[in-house]
Amino acid sequence: MMTKSSLRRLAACASVVLILSTGGMGFANENAVQDKDIRKANASRYDEMARGVNAPIYDYYARRIKAKTGITKGVCLDAGSGGGYLGLALARITDLTFIFLDISQNALSKAKEHIVEDGLQKRARTLLADVHSIPLPDGSVDLVISRGSIHFWKDPGVALKEIYRILAPGGMTYIGGGKGTPEMQAQIRARLKEMGREKEWFRGGAGQRVQRDYDAILKATGIPNYEVITGGEAPGFWIVIKK
Ligand SMILES: C[S@@+](CC[C@H](N)C(=O)[O-])C[C@H]1O[C@@H](n2cnc3c(N)ncnc32)[C@H](O)[C@@H]1O
């Protein structure tokens, strides 16, 4: 027969067992893995890949940008820079100075780390801003580059007009997305397979991307001198504007 006090002790013990087995019900919010933790882990993996196995892709586009625009001096803005991978690759083959603009403070923290790692403190700075409203003066930038970001912009027409505003006369853009040549992609995927990380080939974010008719969007902006490059040796698309 159980007494009242033994029942109370049993209830107390059951609560302790329950709390231990659930990791503490009272602290569920602290212990639960939040969406922001998952985003942070994905961003870290993206960063590690971009500076590691995917680095040749950024080097490749940096070479294409240099060849297409011929701009090697002045100010370059990397819009939606993330950790700064494309701009940093371009910094290695030009004398440009860089502004890495992103709407995410976490992304810019990574960019700052990489600027220091690459010894570019005197040639690069970060700017926390939205590409739809860029806090830079008219005509202050010679080259605007951007990879893998435009699909996430809410109103690319507004953003492109804003980019046009900050371009100096003779300034150019190279804005779009691509993952290098099929040969390069095959090599990287083979390397990822060796590492047991094949599923990480440009993971994350794809679901949020928006497919749009960029030619129609550009026409509507009234920007006079532009070209939309698709296909060629590397699948992808790029908007080249000349002011
Ligand atoms: C897929 S990442 C690409 C990062 C890097 N450019 C690359 O090629 O790896 C897209 C980046 O665009 C940024 N972004 C998205 N919308 C933006 C906006 N409206 N203004 C500025 N940055 C934006 C995100 O914060 C993110 O860092």
Globular, elongated, flat, extended or rod-shaped: what is the shape?
Answer: globular
User: Stretches where pLDDT falls below 50 for ≥5 residues?
Assistant: 1-27
Structural category:
alpha/beta
Ligand types: S-adenosylmethionine
- Helical percent range? 40-55%
Radius of gyration: 24 Å
The tally of structural domains comes to: 1
Description:
The protein is an alpha/beta fold. It has helices at 4-22, 28-31, 35-51, 55-69, 85-91, 105-117, 156-166, 182-194, 214-221; strands at residues 75-79, 97-102, 124-128, 141-147, 167-178, 226-230, 236-241. Helix 4 (55-69) packs across helix 5 (85-91) and helix 7 packs across helix 9. The model is unreliable at 1-27 (pLDDT under 50). Residues 50, 80-82, 85-86, 102-104, 107, 130-132, 147-149, 152-153, 205 line the site of S-adenosylmethionine. S-adenosylmethionine (SAM) binds at residues 50, 80-82, 85-86, 102-104, 107, 130-132, 147-149, 152-153, 205.
Task: Produce the secondary structure layout.
Layout: H1 4-22, H2 28-31, H3 35-51, H4 55-69, E1 75-79, H5 85-91, E2 97-102, H6 105-117, E3 124-128, E4 141-147, H7 156-166, E5 167-178, H8 182-194, H9 214-221, E6 226-230, E7 236-241
Parallel strand pairs: 1-2, 1-4, 2-3, 4-5
Antiparallel strand pairs: 5-7, 6-7
Helix pairs in contact: 4-5, 7-9
The structure holds S-adenosylmethionine (SAM).
S-adenosylmethionine (SAM) binds next to helix 5.
